[in-house]
Design brief:
Chain lengths: 289, 289, 289, 289
């Protein structure tokens, strides 16, 4: 297929590489061109404008946040795009923006698919991402081979693109709550002189298997948060988006508010670029340790 | 071995049966004698006083709460007990009570082992409980064959009995936080018209495998909380104990306070005997649904 | 003085009337012209565009929210305005917008004064508002006679306009926290069968005199929230702005998050147009009453 | 009248002095006798047992906490007391203890009056306390002359003693919430470079007059918490009692939970003996300042 790719941060570049490896033609654009160059060596065509990438059979995008997406996917870009193009937005954006983009694309005959992903850059590099996709079924069918080159599994969530974003934000909120809980539990254990590792052995062997409790728990047990695999400030971004999505449907999320405050505490203490697990240090700090 | 057993609620009776099946002699006591009778049919000797059970090689206990334990394990009981007896307390009690009982037993030459368990009555019946045990190593060694008849695995947490209680309370707090989080996530999803089951499929297949997210999530998705497997009021009891243990070491647990308030809301609405998953209904109620 | 006035809601109209009564010439603009007409009968000139009002010696504005302010005070309006004009923005807007407007006005040689007010429409009608003003000292000096026609006291908070907005939001947060506290206290008292009025008599005669505790407390005691003097949805708007201002300086405000959730609960139950004191009903609902 | 007085801490001693000054005969008892001696110089009779004080026309008590009250007012003390004695308990105790004491006294024909007070030691010394009294009307009538010697006003709250305790705890919760709010507001203001004193001038001149906002606000503005007028650890005791009273009637008090966590943070940082206003420092610490 003839594919465009917009946004080559750590996640985007790994995805773009896997699309190339799968044999597709790829035009790539990034705001700072030097991040695009390594892909040229792999066969991609580096283009100078988002519009040049926003063409062909489908375009994939992975921009940093709502502001970047709003700036790039503006009216003029959509106006010049070929009708029937499929745009697959894999970034974690707000539900409100997803709704607005879906509307704006449809008004111009462009198919908008929301397909946010779960997994860190190393998972993206291994093409093992979990993808939650929503949008017009036919459009998703068309890009499914590309999604298969990026992830290990695509979950289909119906025809309204923003539903994929809601699920992604709910999942990230669940993650944030679990890490905050581990941090608080760690502070409780430390207060009574019990080793966090003993606790983790018990719960990860019984009720709480899986990567989250074992992985973040280990970082908290070691009180070691650098280098970050997933930065606290990115976790805060996701919690803010979850709170905004909940606000939009007048739904209180009290645990999300607690995590938000703990993450603000982390950022205020210069820990924003540390791993999300630094919530363990925040909980310890509250307890004077 | 010659064993006493005190406290024959749903959990206690299942444990006592498994001890009998493993071939041990068993004297059993319960405040209301009729709950003890069925065990007589299996070969147990029903006794009339806690003191008659508090003898032999070892005594196991599974009383409902701190108040029951304080009432039974009083100074006169300990005074008349044989020196060198091992008392294994499997109930979820406060850290403060565990410390007090450990002190009082030691003062009279009785070995006190805290061995709270994880698992519901059906798990107890299947002898598959997870046991966290702490206390004098030699005492635990002596009763290990009995623990093996009750559970599938015993985690050893050192020589201070209360450390087992801290781990148990931290684990239950982790459970409570996960259920509250599922409830809040469910309210967020419903607010945007997304099916809870779609969300559960995604997270239980990726970051959150294991029985907690799948099991409680399913109850919330079905909005079905009766009959309860684990009652909301028992969950509240555990969260209160976690908060008390944290207070004792001046450690804030903000997520635990949130869960406590949600559980109070459940009880205030007559949902105390429903399953712990009723936190999903509480979150929906806050959102006017 | 020759004065423009933009935004004639309940508060704006009362202020505009007092400016007229003080003998100033007034051009008024409102998005829906019919709200402006009654002022014509008092001598105001109704104009058709914001630009026609944004002229003369000074212009005062009282628009509903950030979105309205952004829409009206855009680049083209500022571009055509006379240099040296003083713009006094009396609305409660976000700190971020106040900073942006201050910057945009200064870039075009227009003086921007933030002068948010405290008091409800009846206080505005009586010209008894409390005004907190910040911006260039000389500009405030110039409009002080007009401010004196609107309020009973102007507090000067330095030369940075956004400082006035921060103080206003902190004051509204303080109010919101007090009302939430009264609501929770009321639920506690009711739970023990104690009359809220007895409690109010005690605290308003001792530690908590003043209009807030007596006034909102009385509404809660009567469980009577209509007609609203200050609507719950406006209170939520202010709490959101306080949280946003705190987020911008990485400052957790846990009490504000609690109030936000209670207000979302109110709106979700169709109580958004009831008086702010409806937080008492929310607290009672949480307690199953 | 012939009066006994039990408990001579800072508050108790001031009250006892005022009773003496009013011309009553006074027998005083304190656990450590040396605190009682200064009253002997003023004419009081120092006695060696609580029982010796628990006699005469009426006995007043002001013990530190529930544990002290339970230890002193036990079955044997009540058993030997004269029938028809009036016991006025002025301490801040739990609602549960108030109920229990009311029951135990009534069972032995002793009149139990709960009369907790509002005000610090300097207010007690000036005989300006605010008293909230509940219990048998005739009993209160009998001791009213003594209450008039201690306080400036007695509020009567009906015949159930515990109602006075509920009002007292609700009032202290209101105070705690106001101080926490001031602390959070201070952190918000500081984050934007606004002086706390400017904010205080505005709110204490308008919506929030009275001693609480001005007094605690000033301490926070000065970041000066020693010597304490009301210690943070005593504030925490009161918040715990409010939460326990709310728990007993299944009433969530989310703001109280927030204040509790902030106070635990203070104690964990060695600030327990500083003034309650140290909540301002806790809020600043969360914001990294």
């Amino acid at each position: 297929m003839d594919i465009g790719f917009i946004g080559l941060g750590g996640m985007g570049r790994a995805m773009a590489e896997n699309i190339l490896k799968a044999g597709h033609r790829l035009r790539v654009w990034n705001r700072s061109r030097e991040r695009a160059e390594p892909l040229a060596a792999l066969g991609a065509q580096v283009v100078d404008t988002p519009a040049a990438a926003f063409a062909g059979d489908a375009v994939f995008s992975m921009l940093a946040d709502d502001a970047a997406a709003r700036a790039v996917f503006d009216a003029s870009l959509l106006e010049q795009a070929p009708r029937d193009l499929v745009h697959v937005n894999m970034a974690t954006v707000s539900v409100a923006l997803a709704e607005a983009l879906a509307h704006d694309h449809a008004a111009r005959g462009i198919h908008y698919v929301a397909a946010p992903v779960m997994g860190r850059p190393d998972v993206a590099a291994a093409a093992k991402l979990t993808i939650v996709a929503a949008g017009p079924a036919e459009a998703i069918d068309r890009v499914q081979p590309v999604l298969d080159a990026i992830g290990q599994k695509t979950w289909r969530l119906g025809s309204l693109p923003q539903h994929a974003n809601v699920v992604k934000l709910a999942a990230n909120f669940t993650l944030a709550a679990a890490v905050e809980t581990l941090g608080e539990a760690s502070a409780l254990l430390a207060g009574h002189g019990v080793a966090m590792t003993d606790f983790l052995d018990v719960i990860t062997s019984s009720a709480f298997p899986g990567p989250v409790y074992a992985g973040y728990g280990k970082l908290i047990a070691q009180d070691s948060y650098e280098p970050a695999q997933f930065k606290a400030r990115l976790g805060l971004k996701d919690v803010r988006l979850a709170l905004a999505a909940a606000d939009a449907c007048t739904t209180p999320l009290p645990v999300a508010s607690v995590v938000r405050d703990s993450l603000l505490d982390a950022l205020a203490h210069g820990e924003g670029d540390m791993d999300f697990a630094v919530l363990g240090r925040v909980a310890a700090r509250r307890a004077g340790r």
